[in-house]
Write a structure and sequence with these properties.
heterodimer, A: mainly alpha, 3-stranded antiparallel beta sheet, two-stranded antiparallel sheet, 16 helices, 66% helix, globular, B: alpha+beta, Beta-lactamase, 6-stranded mixed beta sheet, 5-stranded antiparallel beta sheet, 19 helices, transferase (chain B), transferase activity (chain B), PBPA_dimer (chain B), penicillin binding (chain B), Penicillin-binding protein 2 (chain B)
């Protein structure tokens, strides 16, 4: 029967995906257990009792997750069932860790000690946007129409922090805007816009970029005239680095573009050109930007810069903390995460490493790995080039961001300022990442949905889908 | 586009594997190294906040941690701070000294011998507690030693060490002036730093444990070593006739050295016993000159000179007997002058070795290590470190020292009804400062239970009164009585 179905639908689509919404619900229960359980553990560890607001907090978290799940069930029934539980678990754990830091910050008399509550508000906004995205956007290919609009919006968002009235420089990086009392990082939204813009641009021009060029040694190098876009993107990245003093975002945008360019053209030559440009840019940055040079030295010899300013105090304290945490951690409330500046944002992983140990750090890295894996899997099975490129781009954002920030905090690579998706405190980042997940679910819903029926016989094919075999697509 | 997507997947896999490997390296392999870093305040604060074990003398906790309601949860308190400071040392946020330092792993609960306790704590989810340390000190002896030093006139600087000759157990160890470890244990770190600065600048050096950290010429108490070397050479016994007289002509020199009181020790030829009884300089200068630098150095080293032997406390100075002294210096070393220096602990070891048939026992202050529930985890075994003299030599020397107390310069240490062996000492110091007063003794002579060394480094007593054991003798006597009467 399935063969009949495949013949009927043009010999391409034979495998019909199951919806797996029940599996998603089961995983979401586990994810909620992680989030609410961690919140209870924070109360037990620091105050000796389960927090009084556990019911209200747990209820709110559950309501958000159930709302997201119901939305997926209704408007994207074929969407990937693993992504939502993964981000629910990470977001829930992040909230619990922020609550843990709040208690200590309050005890120490810090001004800011309501990170968890604010983050819960931002999560609510994020989930609402997640729902809106899925409800409004019934087919991701609609976005292709907005290729240049998205590109323009992305660039404008990146420029916003430089504008005199609303731009803000916080902690040495000019990546903030301030509107009506709310601080926002437009770069977090810009990265989503740029993925849409790149996807639309590359899916149109991939042939020109892929086919022309000459072969040097074993590598097909692109034509000079096709270098325009990559040079432009390189320019934007360097601008972010030099003007905004933001090494992490610069790396993220350029790496994102490079990955999408490579996937669109299938030509490793672009990687060679990109890597060359990156190396040149990195060398120039090292030579001319003092900040970059410092970061590099702190990374190589963190212990030598412990008590100088600017120095590696933050990194070394994080390393001390994580080393002290060891395999299973000190337990929530038994560490000293407040010794690490910005433990609630960029360095939230050091808090987790100190109090929950290597075990939790590995679990979190694996969770991120699974998010990336699901994104790339969506890209593989997506039927349209635009969807493939978007899924790759969104997956690459998560992969690069996680690698840059976790690698930086654990001393694998030089430290750059980026938030840890879903864990770190930060409204812009959290909201943008919920939208990223919504987009991925929309693309996967399109990809996994049974092919449009060409023939009444297909009904039976769908009924029999459970017995069909996986046929490898190439 | 699927082929490059697979390549990107593999690349992402490599990135995440790198993160996992690096995290494992950092948090498992490198964790110990990071914990050793002195700048790692987490380790220090955690140790500081733990319920640290007690330091016990007898059944009394002289140092213990009591709950406090600040963020460090426990406050270290010392019940008899000054009296025991040289042994306990202090425990501050910055560092530790004394037993607090040497037994830190046990007290903090990190010692491997406490593994089972820690496991139980982990499983029952109770906060880890440190183990207890039982000292060898005898409360009565320590009280006597401390009271003796306290009662010295003026701002005396001095030290007392009492050993159990058969084992090497340190029964008492006191030093003045000293410090209050409670000040260092304060949670007001600013005040602690201030106190540390102030005590370090104090010219009377209150942070030094004089019993083990101050080396001074041992003076006439070193005549025990000279006499031991002479008897060990086989040419002398307690009744041998040795040269007395008014003055000794130093070799290779025009200088002569007389006796302390300017007398002739009772004749040109006297017995070795009489020479020790009257502490005759001429006799021991002659003997040291005759025995030579090598024989004297061998004997001194057999008693423990030129090395340190106490392992439980830091801040020890090695007592010195140089092997490269020329003839006049060697002769002078026979009466504990020239380059010979000794700690009170070293002189107590000399007395203890004579009391213990010539066996030098390693001194120790930690008797037992106990789990928080007081079950004994480990006990220090007495250990012989050398055979300084034969038992017959020891007998001869004991006989001579008993005579010195009964009928000689060491009479202030006599205890009615008990045979006491003892020797005074007075060493020259420069200028117009009074000389150092020494006193070593042990008792009872037939069954030694305690050997004592007393050093009074400076006090407001006139030099005349120092020589006759006036200062050291009564202190040694009260410490010996405390042990014998326990």
């Amino acid at each position: 029967m399935s063969q009949t179905g495949s013949l009927m639908s043009g010999g391409l689509m034979t495998f019909v995906h199951r919806r797996r919404r029940g599996a998603e619900l089961f995983l979401l229960v586990l994810a909620l257990a992680v989030g609410i359980g961690a919140y209870a553990a924070v109360g037990l560890g620091l105050e000796g009792e389960v927090p009084a607001d556990i019911v209200g907090y747990g209820g709110w978290l559950t309501a958000l997750i159930v709302a997201a799940h119901v939305t997926v069930r209704v408007v994207a029934p074929y969407a990937d069932p693993v992504l939502l539980p993964l981000v629910a678990a990470l977001n829930g754990l992040g909230l619990a860790v922020l609550r843990r830091l709040d208690i200590t910050y309050e005890a120490l008399g810090f001004d800011q000690h309501t990170f968890a509550r604010q983050q819960l508000t931002w999560m609510t906004v994020g989930v609402v946007l997640f729902i809106i995205t899925l409800v409004v956007l019934r087919d991701h290919r609609v976005l292709q129409r907005f290729t240049y609009t998205a590109g323009l919006v992305g660039i404008v968002l990146l420029i916003l922090p430089f504008l005199p009235v609303i731009g803000r420089e916080i902690n040495g990086a000019r990546i903030w805007i301030n509107v009506a009392g709310f601080s926002f990082q437009p770069g977090e939204v810009a990265k989503v816009m740029l993925v849409i813009a790149f996807s639309g641009y590359l899916v149109l021009h991939r042939d020109a970029l892929a086919l022309a060029g000459r072969r040097v040694v074993f590598v097909d190098l692109p034509r000079g005239r096709d270098l325009g876009p990559i040079l432009a993107m390189f320019g934007v990245s360097m601008m972010i680095l030099v003007l905004q003093n933001d090494l992490g975002s610069s790396l993220l945008f350029f790496g994102l573009f490079l990955a999408m360019l490579y996937v669109a053209t299938e030509r490793p030559g672009w990687l060679v050109v990109g890597a060359g440009l990156f190396a040149a840019g990195a060398l120039a940055a090292y030579t001319f930007v003092g900040n970059v040079q410092n970061r590099f030295n702190f990374w190589l010899n963190p212990m030598d810069y412990y008590d100088v300013t600017p120095g590696s105090y933050q990194l070394v304290e994080a390393l001390f903390g994580m080393g002290w945490g060891g395999l299973i951690g000190r337990g929530l409330g038994n560490g000293f995460p407040e010794r690490v500046p910005f433990a609630y944002s960029d360095f939230i992983l050091s808090t987790i490493g100190e109090e929950l140990g290597l075990t939790a750090v590995m679990a979190i890295v694996v969770c991120y790995g699974l998010i990336v894996e699901r994104a790339l899997r969506i890209a593989l099975i997506s039927r349209d080039g635009f969807g493939k490129l978007m899924a790759v781009g969104l997956g690459a954002i998560v992969a690069l961001q996680v690698f840059v920030v976790i690698g930086g905090v654990t001393g694998l690579i030089p430290l750059t300022g980026l938030t840890t998706p879903f864990l770190s405190y930060g409204g812009s980042s959290l909201v943008a990442n919920w939208v990223v997940i919504a987009l991925l679910l929309r693309i996967s819903d399109q990809a996994r949905r049974p092919a449009p029926r060409m023939d009444p016989v297909a009904d039976e094919a769908e009924a029999d889908s459970e017995h069909t075999q996986v046929v490898k697509l190439k | 586009m699927n082929k490059p997507i697979r390549v990107v997947s593999v690349f992402c896999l490599i990135l995440f594997m790198a993160l996992l490997v690096n995290a494992t390296y950092l948090m498992y392999v490198r964790a110990d190294d990071l914990g050793q870093d002195p700048r790692n305040r987490r380790i220090i604060t955690a140790t500081f906040s733990r319920e640290r074990g007690a330091i016990l003398v007898g059944k009394e906790a002289i140092a213990q941690s009591v709950p406090s309601d600040d963020k460090y949860k426990f406050q270290r308190t010392y019940s008899q701070p000054f009296k025991y400071a040289p042994i306990t040392g202090y425990f501050s946020w910055y560092s530790q000294t004394g037993v607090e330092r040497s037994q830190n792993a046990v007290l903090a609960g990190d010692d491997s011998r406490l593994f089972v306790t820690r496991l139980v704590d982990l499983l029952s989810n109770t906060d880890p507690k440190g183990g207890n340390v039982q000292l060898t000190a005898d409360a009565a002896a320590q009280d006597a030693a401390w009271a003796g030093l306290e009662d010295l006139p003026g701002d005396a600087q001095g030290a007392v060490v009492a050993l159990e000759p058969t084992t090497g157990r340190v029964l008492a160890m006191a030093s003045t002036p000293t410090f209050d470890p409670n000040g260092f244990a304060s949670h007001d770190f600013k005040a602690v730093a201030e106190l540390d600065k102030q005590l370090n600048a104090d010219p009377s050096e209150p942070l030094i444990n004089r019993a083990i950290g101050t080396t001074l010429p041992p003076g006439s108490t070193f005549k025990l070593v000279t006499a031991a070397a002479a008897i060990e050479s086989g040419n002398y016994d307690a009744d041998s006739m040795v040269p007395g007289g008014f003055r000794f002509q130093l070799p290779q020199s025009s200088d002569t050295v007389g006796n302390y009181d300017g007398g002739n020790c009772g004749g040109r030829r006297i017995t070795l016993t009489q020479a020790l009884q009257v502490s005759c300089n001429v006799t021991f200068l002659t003997l040291a000159n005759e025995l030579g630098n090598e024989a004297m150095a061998d004997q001194a080293e057999a008693f423990g000179f030129n090395s340190t032997s106490l392992e439980d406390l830091g801040g020890q100075a090695a007592s010195l007997y140089p092997r490269d002294m020329d003839a006049p210096q060697t002769a002078l070393s026979g009466i504990g002058q020239s380059s010979v220096t000794a700690t009170p602990l070293q002189m107590a070891m000399v007395a203890a070795a004579i009391a213990n048939d010539g066996d030098v026992m390693r001194p120790y202050v930690v008797d037992e290590v106990r789990a928080p529930n007081l079950s004994v985890l480990d006990r220090t075994d007495p250990q012989s470190i050398s055979k300084a003299i034969s038992s017959t030599t020891a007998e001869e020397l004991t006989r001579m020292l008993v005579a010195t107390v009964d009928d000689g310069t060491a009479s202030p240490a006599a205890i009615p009804g008990v045979e006491v062996a003892g020797k005074t000492g007075t060493a020259q110091s420069s200028g117009d400062r009074p000389p150092y007063a020494w006193f070593v003794s042990f008792a009872p002579a037939n069954d030694p239970q305690v050997a004592v060394a007393v050093l009074v480094q400076s006090s407001d007593t006139s030099p005349d009164e120092i020589g006759g054991g006036v200062l050291g003798g009564p202190i040694a006597k009260s410490v010996m009585e405390a042990v014998i009467n326990r």
